[in-house]
Design a protein that fits this description.
The protein is an all-alpha fold. It contains four helices and no strands.
């Protein structure tokens, strides 16, 4: 993933409430992130496979972050 896409991804998570992130199961969390990315006109849908793989590898980290006070 390029740096712009990484920033975009982590910005979504930083702007989200921990409660929202914790309330979604893994599949719903992935879909929710992808849907937000797809709504951005600058997002290249050709990056979807890379984004999906990246999300799957970062689910444990996202869960840890969602549990932070």
């Amino acid at each position: 993933m390029d740096i712009r896409l990484l920033r975009q991804f982590w910005s979504i998570l930083e702007a989200s409430s921990n409660q929202r992130l914790a309330s979604l199961d893994d599949s719903s969390l992935s879909k929710w992130i992808v849907d937000i990315l797809k709504d951005d006109p600058t997002f290249d849908s050709g990056n979807l496979p890379v984004v999906n793989r990246y999300i799957q590898t970062r689910i444990p980290l996202i869960r840890d972050l969602a549990q932070q006070p």
